[in-house]
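Data deposition worksheet. Section B asks for the primary sequence of the deposited chain exactly as it was used as input, without tags or linkers unless they were present during the calculation. Section C holds the resulting structure in token form. Section D is free text for depositor observations; keep each observation to a single sentence. Incomplete worksheets are returned to the depositor.
Section A, Depositor: J.P.
Section B:
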Amino acid sequence: MKPSLTIWDSDKQPSNNDGNVYTWNGYKESESIFSLQKYIEEHDIELRRRYMVWVYDLSLKEVNNKSLIEIFLLKKDFSYWWMTNFIEQSMLKSPNIPDVIKIFSLEKILKELTPKSVVLVSSNRALVCVIEDLCKDLDIHCILSNQKNKRVNFSFINNFRIIFLEIIKSIVVFLSYLKILALLKVKREEKRKFEPNSLFIVTYFTNFCMKKAVKGNFYSHYWGQLHNLLKDMAINVNWLHIYQNNVDIPTNQAKNLISNFNNKTSLQVHNLLESYCTKDILFKVIKSWFKISKARQDLDNLSTIFYSREGNYSLWPLVQNDWNSSLIGSNLILNIFHFELFNNLLKSIPRQNVGMYLFENQSWERAFVYLWKKHGHGKLLGVAHTFVRFWDLRYFNDRRFFKLTGTSLMPKPDLIVLNGRNAMDTYRRSNTYSTFAECEALRYDFLSDINKIRKSNRGSHTSSLNILILAEYSINTSKHMLSNVSEAIKLIDRTVSLSIKPHPATVITKDKHSFLEFNIITDPLPEIMPLFDLVITGSLTVASLDIFLSGIPLIIILDQKKLNFSPLRGTEGVCFVSSMAELKRAIDSCQNPDNFPDIKNFFKIDNNLSSWKKILSESLI
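Section C:
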């Protein structure tokens, strides 16, 4: 038994005089300072599994002889629970997921080391509350460094304030979405009807080639060469687009683009999901909002619902934002809108032989799968269009979910289509889905010509260093990256030219980053990669994989507060940095790789799309 252990959750750096210290954030370690982030990476499979089990246990937690799945029934055979943040498991929507996993890792450490006391250095009131209860459960004395943050306030007034704010958020989102629906509304006589017995594809109204779109040709980068295959096979396709706010496609232009697509060819029909809104749907959304909110409000003593199976402590302070947002706030409004829009659409169109959608376990997907089957349509395929990352929990569920029956039945597609060896191996090891198949990676079709990029990048640049920065979806994460880069290049002797490629869903302007001189570039990544000597990314973007496979020197900046979300996590030869000093050294030593990675270890690439031909032929029979 060790006398004391310190948990350090502070922007200040601990000293070796503080005894044995586990830092809550960051990767830096020394003789007596240990990184909780690194500990998680060393016990990754066990801790990911622990989280999945916790979500399963939570879903079946009973209150008054009913599980949470049953309490939140939206229809008699569909539970709204499947649309909540707890099932979606997105770290963008649920930023506290890493903290929950860190709590599990801390529990494991405390059981191994059995210290007499824990000194907690943190200003995070929710975190303080959970760790204090964890220590109490393990009979460990907890010493708080900041007594002002001793407990989270669970008083009636505080709870009322939280609920009130969530209701305000839901009203704001309701009105904002109404504005979008009004702009995207299409008169019935102007809307092109979906054809019967066709291939039905659900995709996002973003990430398509605008140069082709203005000429009436729809080419989505999500689906790549499948467009040409569908044309060659003369398959009738009904495209359903889900609108997303996009800097490149203003809402008032979306309808015009859809009209242009429909006027171009008779084999394809295009419509926006949002164009299927009616006045009845608005009333149904409000009615369902009250139904789910009341079910949430009727639950007492929420703290006990969120107890961990392996300990007598509650995770409620860390997850209450997800709970409130999903069951009374903005996410509830959007989720119900999607449910009712899909319901109105799928019950009104002719039967579709085969359906496909972008599989990411987004909240709307469960509603779509349920309603697709309820209204009698054919086989349904979920297409995992991107790289399946270890910590992307959206792609992983406890397999016991799929054994539930009756009102607790979890909607799932008939088949998951994966894009290569890595995804296949990941799914086999995770023991999540049992029905999956391998097909060519549609989103990565440019990799078939990867040798051209590799050759053009060898020794083609001047003595100056051309650096490309791939910005993240999160504005704050991008700011942190740019700040590190700004400080690092001041210490570099070479002339540096910086370019930034913003994330498609965000805007980066020079005036808000005056501390750094850079160019903004928006061209497709495969077209611009040969122009650069070095690419710097964050750990969230999947585009880092494109760079790595192209053989361009790559540096990945780890987020100090998040898990290593990179698709290249654990890949030999990849440079990860977690500080400005490490970034500076990595830039100084960057050079072209001696050997290129084998693409077959990541994706299935075949210009003939043989596997897709087979799966489409078999499904459309």
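Section D:
Residues 189-275+333-443+610-619 form a domain with the Rossmann fold fold (CATH 3.40.50).
The chain has three domains: 1-42+115-152, 189-275+333-443+610-619, 449-600.
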